[in-house]
Amino acid sequence: MKLDVVHDLQSVYRKVVNATSRPGTISDLSHEALSVEKVPVQCAASIWVLALTLLDQEVTFKVYSTQAEKASRAINQLTYAKPVEVNEADFIFVLPDAEEGSLEEAIESGKHGTLMNPHNSATIIVEAENVNEGVELLLTGPGIQTSTSVKVCLTGDWIASRNQKNREYPLGIDLMIIDKEHQLLSLPRTTQIIENKVVV
Fold first, then answer.
1. What element of type H or E holds 166?
2. Cα 22 to Cα 114: distance, rounded to the nearest angstrom
3. Of 45, 58, 67, 135, whose CB is crowded by the most CB atoms within 10 A?
């Protein structure tokens, strides 16, 4: 089966909107991801599908990976988006082979908007082992009735880095976490995250 660049990418976009407007909701991108015949670099096909859906010639991006040059060239050729330094990028991809600490660096260095234009901030897309296992996170904020919890298997001190970056509302970065099973968790900058240490 081959990826339909019209219908499949429209479907991905709707799922991204749903996941972003309802933080804590997991969106399944497996149907679209499994339609990708070949991924140019070592990462989940769903990462590639998100790049094809969200990037165009009007935006910029940065890739963290040992294959960053190859990945950047492929993304540029397919979407016409321009590769730039992390502090200028609209989208930042942290692939599974990125060096330790890359996610924290991306969060700390990424654009967080201005008071006049808070939407002029970066969206970080990172691949995790699993979005149904690992550390339990308690989420609150817009799109969540009271609170909700999710589990994410993602190493590093990224929660503290994100909370620090997003401390001055409405400034901050948006985060999308995709796992090897093509499950998407979106954490917009308006979502508050704490590690849930309560034992039930």
1. none
2. 24
3. 45
CB neighbours of 10 closer than 8 A, spacing ≥ 6? none
**Band of pLDDT at residue 42, cut at 50, 70 and 90:** confident
pLDDT in tens, 111-127: 999 989 988 999 999 99
| pLDDT at res. 198 | 53
The amino acid at residue 31 is H
> Which one, of 41, 43, 17, 24, lies nearest residue 126 by Cα?
43
Q: What is the mean pLDDT of residues 72-84?
A: 96
Rounded to the nearest 10 degrees, how much is the dihedral formed by the CA atoms of 164, 128, 74, 52?
-80
* Cα(195)–Cα(136) distance, integer angstroms: 6
Q: If you ran DSSP here, which 8-state letter would residue 88 be given?
A: G
On whether the CB atoms of residues 96 and 85 are closer than 8 A, the answer is no
Asked if residues 12 and 49 have their Cβ atoms less than 8 Å apart, the reply is yes
Amino acid at 6: V
**What is the pTM assigned to this prediction?**
0.93
Taking the CA of residue 17 as centre, how many other CA atoms within 13 Å lie in the half-sphere pointing to its CB? 7
Q: How many helices (H) and strands (E) does the chain have?
A: 6, 10
Specify whether the CB–CB gap between 161 and 173 falls below 8 A.
no
How do residues 154-173 score in pLDDT, each as one tens digit?
A: 988 999 999 999 999 889 99
